[in-house]
Known about the structure:
- The chain is mostly beta strands.
- Helix content is 12%, strand content 36%.
- The chain has a six-stranded antiparallel beta sheet with strand order 25-24-23-22-26-27, with no helix packed on it. A four-stranded antiparallel beta sheet has the order 1-30-29-28, with no helix packed on it. Strands 2-3-4-5 form a four-stranded antiparallel beta sheet, with no helix packed on it.
- The longest helix is centred in the last third of the chain and has 24 residues, at 469-492.
Amino acid sequence: MNLSLIDPFILAQDYPDALTGKIRSGHAACIRFNRKGDFLASGRVDGTIVIFDIETNGVARKLRGHTRQIQALSWSGDGRYLLSSSQDWKCILWDLNDGTKLRTVRFEAPVYIAELHPTNPFLFVASLFEDQPLLVDISNCIPLKHQLSSVPKRPKLDRADLNEKQALQDARQSTCVTVFTAQGDHIIAGTNKGWLNIIEVKSQDIVHSTRLCNGIMILLRLTPSGRDIVSNSSDRVIRTIPIPNLSQAGLDMDTIKIEVEHKFQDVVNRLSWNHVVFSSTGDYVAASTFMNHDIYVWERGHGSLVKILEGPKEELGVLEVCTLVQHSVQYCVDITKWHPHRPFVTACGIETGRVYLWSIITPQRWSALAPDFAEVEENVEYVEQEDEFDIHPIEEIQKRRLDLEDEAVDVLTADPVKGDSDHEIFSMPVLLDIMDSESEEEIIPVGPGTMRRKSPGEGREWMNGTESGNDIEELQKVATTTAEKSQSRSRKR
């Protein structure tokens, strides 16, 4: 839409207000925006990764390498690399320049969530099911796995009074979620006992620990600036915590204090939260609800609820990244996502796998086209100006047309996006193959002027190892022979 036609006061709004659209390519289980916000990666339940172009809502690329549901996605800072973790116990690093697999790492347990280093795409941290987290270096073909501890670092006074029972309980702790700080020098980890551990990447030791709650830490997300973190836990409370500059020279980790800034919860209905996410500016917190179809938006300045976004008639999962807790098993899934630079929220439907879009409804301001334009509520009599319909010479009209044609219009150069200055700009090549789409409204040509809806299992032969040109040609020959026989029979009758 033309920006000159949009009311500037509407553009200043920081949070969306209505459901504006939906996109789908298969059953999405997790989603993640890249740093610039022009592409949205969607991990499907069949192990395929679909990358959508946000401007057109079309499929830009598909990545196939997993055999089970995608659990989490993580983009590199420049947008060239994408890390995917799946229920097949593998993590794959993709090069989006050509869609190839650069590295494949297999673990000994299912992966909750895997997060790339903010500046080094060949370093990531993974949280495993009932196991200790791993810091993985994939600079070489053989990955180097460094195990990280989950035992919290207690103050010196508490260590003296620590008995055997407490020490045994600490040893049984496991890390559920991990995330790098903005500088990448530390890892913030949440455990199943409510502890928040800060791990130094260089030494791989826990340098500080704080207990936030008594439940399971389900999700951690940083603001774009890295100064604040939001946590979702099994006690149905969302917490925002300011994080000090951990890379500051001479900082004593034993003296820092990490305190909760705000607590967001539904005291009346006692709702559980599937997923939480910061806004692009960090001023708002959004959350999708368990067994509900609404998205709650809070303002951090006063800690008040400012908006409840009504969604479709199904439960929503990932807003930015979603963690679903059912009984004692955790499933880390990105269900809800806030656009990096715009008041634009996406969420996955758990039942149908559609990706829903919330944004601002912007009525067009036609008075911006001309200073004397006026909007009227009812018809008025138009007064013709004296020279409005004068006949001009053809030479003058032709000269005006040529002057307009001389103006050069650049349609190839993309305007810079906020946030590109920190990283080298990478533009992902888009595969313009319309037959590669798998939307629910897909139709394919079967003959001259003949179309049909694509069958649900068509195009997935790669999963069964039968994707070969000879098999396809044989199937086409059989179909052609069957059609010819049916036509000959009808003629004989």
